[in-house]
Every structure is written in C-alpha cells, then in structure tokens.
C-alpha cells in the first residue's frame, strides 16, 4: 500500500512536559546536519519547501557568512510538532572544530541528540569529539548518505561500537533494489527495513513523499528476509543482556520466538536503555533523497528523553532538592512558583535588538515580569518572549519548564549574559521578595565551560575617530560569542582579538567589517602564547583605616597543596573558588571571618557584588600579562585572605575594584622575571590518510611540525587508551551485521578503504595552514582535525625563536 505523508497544523499548542523533546543535531562537518534538519522540518509540516545548503536558503543557516560558505557557523533553534507525538525544540549545531563552543552551549541545555554520520566516511574525528562532549546525554545515530557509492552501513555500525564505545540497537537496515537496466549493475538505495515493526518501507522514485509499505513476514522467500531475521535476533539479544523484563517476555509470552516478540515491548526496552545510555538506537537513510527521515522523527519521539526523563541541571547549591512533577516539570527547593532559567546565548539582531536565548528548568517565565539575575546579583525587567524558527520569531506569552525560548526588549540590554542564571516568580509580576536571600536568590545553574582561545590577531582603528565604534563592535562580538577574547598589549597599545581557530577569527573579522561596518584593519593571525608564574608572590596588603582591609597573593595553581580547578563556582568548607573565564585562572576567597562568626551579613553591598568585583579585578590584571612578553597569565590563583573588610554603609563595589586591582598588580610586580615561564598551545591532532600516504605524512608531522605521534590506528580500531576498548572490539567482531552491498562496487571503482588514523600532539605554531600541506602530500585524499590539548612550557632554547615569530 502507499502511505501519503501528513502535514500537521503548525501552531504552538501547549503539550505536557512529557511530550517535549529538546534535541540537538551534532556531527562532523559535511555529514548532512543542515540537510537533515530541512527534511525534518518539511515532513513535520513546518515548511512547505525544502531549502538547500548549496543555494543558501535553509532555515537554520541564515547568516550571510553561512549562506556564502555553505557551512554552519552558529547554532540555530527551531520548534515544531511531530504528528501529535511530541513537540520538538531542535538546535542545529556547527560541525567545524573552530565553532565547538556553539556545540558546547547547545549541549548545555539539550536533553537528547541526533548524531549524523556519513555512511561513506563513517565515524570521523569531529564525530568522536562531539560524542565525548555530549557524554551523559542520550543519543540516536542516523547513518546518512546511504545512496552514495561506497556507503558502508555495517562498516559504520562497527565504527560506532569500536570508536564511540557504545552498544547499538539497530532500528532499521538499508534496502537496496537491484536495477536490471543499470549498466553498472549497482543496486539502488530505495528504503529501509523496519526491524521492530517488521515492515519494508520503500520510498517512491518519482515522489519521495509517498512511502510503499510491505509486511516482511510475507516476504520469506526474498533475498533480504534473512538479513531482516538475523538483525531482529541480534537486536533482541543485545537488549536482553540489560533488560530482564524483555527476557521474561521473550521466554514466557513469545515462547522463545524472535518474530513473536511484541514491538511495544521492544520499543519500551530501547527507550529504557537509551535513557540510561546503555545502548544507542541506530537508523539509516538519505536525507538529500528524503529517505528514512520519518522513521528518524518517530525515533526522536520514542527513544529520546522528555525534560522529566533527562539529566537534572547541575546547581551550585547541591543541597537544594529537585523533584520531577508530571504536570509542572521540575520543582526546585520544593517551591512550585520558583522559576529557574539559564541564558545560553546572546545575539544582537539589527531589527529586534538584544535577544537572549534561555532554557527554563522550573516554573513559568512570563513576558513583562521583573526577574533576578543571580549571577550578577541584580534585578531587571524582561520584554516580550519569542520562539525562534531560524531567524523568524514567533511571539508567545510564557515559557514553561522544559522549554527553550528567547527574551527580548530594551530593558534586558546589559543585564544578562551567556551563562547567567535567571530567577523569577511563576505567578507574580515582581515576586523576587518572596524568595530566600541565601537559597533561591543565590541559586545558579553551573555555567558553561569556555575553551581557551589559541589564535590571535591585531585589530586597529583606521583613524582615531573610528576607535570608539571599533571598541563597541568588539564588545558586541564577545557578548555574542564568549569564546572570542579581547586583550590589550600594554607595551604597544595594540588590541588583540583571540579565538579558537583560523576560520573562527576569519568569520569574526568578517562580521566586524561587514555586519558592524567597523572601520578597522585586521592584522596577521598568530598563535596565542601565554605566561605563567612558577611560584607564589608575597602577600600584598591594604588597610586604610576607613573600613577597607584586604590581603592577597598570586600563586601558580600547581604550587597549591591541593589543586581543585573547578569548572564552576565551588563553595568548599573554608573558601570559595571562582573560575576566571578560560585561562585556567581562579579567584579563591577564604570565608570571611566576620561574616561566618555571627552568620549575619551587615554591609549594604551584597556578598555576591564583592565576589563579582574581585573576579573582575583578577581577570583584568591577569590578562595584562607577565614579565617575559606581556602575554596573559595562565594557571594562576589569586587568593584573598579571610580577614577582608568593607564599610557597612557603602553600596557600590567601585572601591573594592580599585583596591584589589592595585594589590594584584603590586604582588605580581614584586616577582622576579626568572619566576615567569612562556607557554605555547599544544593541539591533539587526528590525521586520516591512505596506507600509501602514511609514511610521508608521519615524517612531515614529526619533522617540520615538531609533533609527537601518539598512535597509528586502522579505520576500525578504537582508541587504545580508552577504557573498555578491547571489550567493544570483541563485541563488534562477534555481532551480526548485514552485508554491505555497495562496498563491493566502490572497490571495483578503485576506491580504497584501507585508511590509517594518525593521532598526534603538536605545537599549534607548526600546524598553521597545515591543510594545504596535507592536501599536497596526499593529492587531496587526506583529512585532519585538531583540538586544544593544553598549554606546555617552552624551554629556554626555543623561547627566543618563538618570541620573534609572535
């Protein structure tokens, strides 16, 4: 029979929290994320025409730079319903390594992920990276591009097991039609075989919106029946290893017959094991040809968690209880009217002004309410609330627990930034006073972890009159993208813009020149070197007799008796650790002796305001750099003694800022120059080449690029250092997989799949423009990816050489 595809009405209807799905699309670049997203929106009825990446008219890639380059640069959100089964809030993320922070911030607020894999390339380097970044989040894998020559479904399945270290639950397998009139005798990918519901789904060649459904139990003589039967047996056996309820059903109700096992029971088992990250459901298709997209949507509804089933948000106060309520969603601290939301993205829209993307964890956020920014310690009023569909807003009145939406309005400008926590009352317009000062109003969702920048370039105004506009434009850039960083070279007076990669800075420069019309000159990209101190400074003290008293010192974090290095604000028994952006620097404030002795905070200035002022001072001075070449200081701790005091009647922290800045500068200034060391960024490099190119590529890495090769692996090998890699190797070898029909044709066309993976660690300065060299060495066959590994001390013999290049 032929099944017409239905297009549900695309209006936002309130559905229960149980029907919400907050999901992200993650993958290696060019695996088909945006193409898949367009098809999901089309079949859900959100759009009536499919956009194309190559022509630059997709919903989620709407920036001019994205449309010009055909690459996703920033994460984009869109919401839609799927046939009454669920309400999907989807975020499409970039695949390029330079924009990893966009993936980080999306994963922070998502409950589940769809990982797209290229069936020809298999598991790629960025696939592994985003898989690790999404650790603990339930995921579905979609093996895309099954229509391509060289597509290997089973080969990719094995790589998912061995390289991603996960068990797989194969939901469907590819169906190929033998083509009688095809001169090449290549079978054509035309559909999928549903292993659970025992159906063949075949997409019509003329109209892919029509799906022909056949019952597999009526195709027992077909050549594909054996693959279906063995795949079903493998699926049930895999699930039975972890699910006793399924075993009981199999033995008692299905009488040991794999075909008689209820689809409902299988779906329930997969959902249960997927939520606990024991197995990963895997589907296949071709998004470009619109094959397999509807089963993927069904899988999102069936196997990925609702906000009630997802991991709980990590809070700074771990003692506050969090409950799951089927009607209201999460309830924090037993307060049904407590609204908690996290700001995870800020953009400046030329028409709508500042827009802040938030995830609501508990309560109800209402337009026009006065809310409290517990990160900044200040109140502000929000304007209208909207949902975003790419760059098209849809105005709404409320955001409920579990939802993702956007704050707008002139009153939010400068009041809330990325990683800030917003507290509000679910009913009252201004109900902040109803909450406890020490509990709810100090509550924070743990902030995003921002990777350190590794490339820099000088940004100069073309004239003195352009300086003010340049500084405002740079400030707007870092508000929108906190992984960019602005610093000053205090010797030359130059302004440095730093980012996570060459493309990252190139795009930032393009935004400055074209989107913001800044009259600036951009310098050459260079490596972002750092400095660190090898010891602790002497204590610097201020006591003016006017109520201000403070003592502090600056230490190498490695000189501390116990290294804490938290990624979020952490309150220990005797002190509070505050991370300072992304240079592994920390502010440590010992518990105030006066405050802790009587439990009453007397000053008019809030404790949080003082912590914020100290953090700002430490961040600013450490960025001024060390004594070698004024590079920013790295892995340092500014420790404030617990006997500090402030006047009771002072409300603003300006004096605290001034005093603490002077003390930090004084402490660093007294340290001798030989106590400073130069640091350079080291990258983890993954290079994929053919066996024939392995020798010359390895020689180039270890020679001119000064890299250290960690390992050389075959395409199906897992990371040798990963826990349990041998176990997953043996699982992949023992498990049944259907034969890869198209690999034979690929090999006949002289395509080689004897690929080698080189894993290495290399100084970043040696990897600049490496892509051109690799393409030259491999005639365009080689690929590479790299990510920040850490900072490493430069020995004195190389220091002068690197400083000349910096």
Automatic annotation (TrEMBL):
Chief place of localization: mitochondrion
Stored Gene3D superfamilies: 3.30.70.240, Elongation Factor G (Translational Gtpase), domain 3, P-loop containing nucleotide triphosphate hydrolases, Translation factors
Keyword annotations: GTP-binding, Mitochondrion, Nucleotide-binding, Protein biosynthesis
GO molecular function, one term: GTPase activity
InterPro entries recorded: EF-G-like_DII (IPR053905), EFG2 (IPR030851), EFG_II (IPR041095), EFG_III (IPR009022), EFG_III/V (IPR035647), EFG_V (IPR035649), EFG_V-like (IPR000640), G_TR_CS (IPR031157)
Taxonomic superkingdom: Eukaryota
Manganese in keyword set: no
Classification via HAMAP family: mEF_G_2
Function description: Mitochondrial GTPase that mediates the disassembly of ribosomes from messenger RNA at the termination of mitochondrial protein biosynthesis. Not involved in the GTP-dependent ribosomal translocation step during translation elongation.
Protein name as catalogued: Ribosome-releasing factor 2, mitochondrial
Gene from which this protein is expressed: KNAG0B01730
């Amino acid at each position: 029979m032929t099944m017409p595809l239905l297009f549900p009405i695309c209006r936002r209807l309130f559905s229960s929290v149980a029907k919400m799905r907050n999901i992200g699309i993650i993958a290696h670049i060019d695996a088909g994320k945006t193409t898949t997203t367009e098809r999901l929106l089309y079949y859900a009825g959100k759009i009536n025409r499919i956009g194309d990446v190559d022509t630059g008219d997709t919903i989620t890639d709407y920036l001019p730079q994205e449309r010009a380059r055909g690459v996703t640069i920033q994460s984009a959100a869109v919401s839609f319903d799927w046939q009454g089964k669920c309400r999907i809030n989807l975020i499409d993320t970039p695949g390029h390594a330079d924009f990893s922070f966009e993936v980080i911030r999306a994963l922070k607020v998502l409950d589940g992920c769809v990982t797209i894999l290229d069936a020809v390339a298999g598991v790629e380097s960025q696939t592994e990276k985003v898989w690790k970044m999404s650790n603990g989040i339930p995921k579905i894998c979609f093996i895309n591009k099954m229509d391509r020559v060289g597509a290997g479904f089973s080969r990719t399945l094995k790589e998912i097991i061995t390289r991603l270290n996960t068990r797989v639950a194969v939901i469907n397998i590819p169906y190929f039609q033998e083509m009688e009139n095809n001169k090449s005798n290549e079978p054509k990918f035309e559909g999928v075989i549903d292993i659970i519901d025992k159906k063949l789904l075949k997409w019509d060649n003329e109209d892919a919106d029509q799906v022909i459904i056949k019952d597999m139990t009526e195709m027992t003589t077909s050549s594909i029946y054996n693959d279906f039967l063995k795949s079903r047996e493998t699926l049930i056996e895999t699930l039975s290893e972890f699910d006793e309820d399924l075993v009981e059903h199999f033995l008692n109700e299905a009488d040991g017959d794999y075909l008689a096992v209820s689809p409902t029971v299988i779906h329930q088992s997969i959902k249960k094991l997927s939520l606990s990250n024991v197995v990963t459901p895997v589907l296949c298709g071709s998004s470009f040809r619109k094959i397999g997209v509807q089963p993927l949507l069904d899988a999102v509804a069936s196997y990925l968690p609702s906000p009630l089933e997802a991991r709980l948000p990590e809070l700074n106060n771990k003692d506050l209880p969090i409950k799951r309520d089927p009607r209201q969603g999460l309830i924090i601290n037993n307060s049904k009217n407590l609204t908690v939301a996290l700001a995870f993205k800020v953009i400046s829209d030329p028409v709508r002004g500042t827009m802040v993307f938030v995830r609501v964890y508990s309560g109800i956020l209402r337009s026009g309410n006065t809310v409290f920014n517990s990160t900044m310690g200040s109140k502000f009023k929000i304007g209208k609330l909207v949902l975003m569909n790419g760059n098209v807003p849809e105005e709404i009145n409320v955001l409920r627990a579990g939802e993702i939406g956007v704050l707008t309005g002139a009153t939010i400008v400068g009041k809330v930034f990325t990683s800030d926590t917003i507290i509000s009352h679910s009913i009252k317009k201004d109900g902040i006073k109803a909450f406890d000062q020490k509990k709810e109003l100090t509550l924070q969702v743990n902030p995003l972890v921002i990777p350190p920048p590794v490339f820099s370039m000088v940004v100069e105004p073309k004239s003195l009159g352009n300086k003010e506009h340049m500084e405002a434009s740079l400030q707007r850039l870092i508000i929108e993208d906190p992984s960019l960083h602005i610093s000053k070279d205090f010797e030359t007076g130059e302004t440095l813009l730093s980012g996570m990669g060459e493309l990252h800075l190139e795009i930032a420069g393009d935004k400055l020149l074209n989107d913001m019309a800044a009259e600036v000159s951009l310098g050459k990209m260079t490596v972002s070197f750092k400095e660190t101190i090898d010891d602790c400074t002497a204590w610097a003290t201020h006591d003016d007799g006017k109520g201000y008293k403070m003592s502090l010192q600056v230490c190498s974090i490695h000189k501390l008796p116990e290294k804490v290095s938290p990624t979020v604000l952490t309150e220990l028994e005797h002190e509070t650790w505050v991370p300072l952006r992304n240079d592994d620097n920390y502010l440590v404030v010992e518990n105030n002796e006066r405050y802790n002795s009587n439990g009453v905070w007397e000053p008019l200035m809030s404790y949080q305001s003082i912590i914020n002022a100290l953090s700002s001072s430490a961040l600013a001075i450490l960025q001024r750099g060390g004594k070698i070449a004024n590079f920013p200081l790295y892995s340092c701790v500014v420790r404030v003694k617990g006997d500090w005091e402030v006047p009771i009647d002072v409300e603003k922290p300006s004096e605290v800022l001034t005093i603490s800045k002077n003390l930090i500068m004084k402490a660093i200034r007294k340290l001798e120059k030989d106590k400073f060391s130069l640091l350079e960024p080291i990258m983890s490099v993954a290079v994929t080449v053919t066996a024939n190119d392995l020798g010359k590529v390895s020689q180039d890495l270890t020679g001119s690029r000064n890299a250290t090769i960690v390992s050389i692996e075959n395409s199906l090998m897992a990371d040798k250092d990963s826990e349990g890699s041998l176990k997953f190797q043996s699982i992949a070898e023992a498990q049944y997989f259907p034969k890869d029909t198209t690999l034979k044709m690929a090999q006949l066309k002289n395509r080689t799949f004897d690929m080698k993976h080189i894993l290495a660690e290399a100084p970043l300065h040696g990897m600049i423009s490496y892509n051109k060299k690799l393409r030259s060495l491999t005639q365009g066959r080689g690929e590479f990816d790299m990510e920040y590994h850490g900072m490493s001390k430069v020995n004195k013999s190389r220091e002068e050489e690197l400083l000349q290049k910096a």
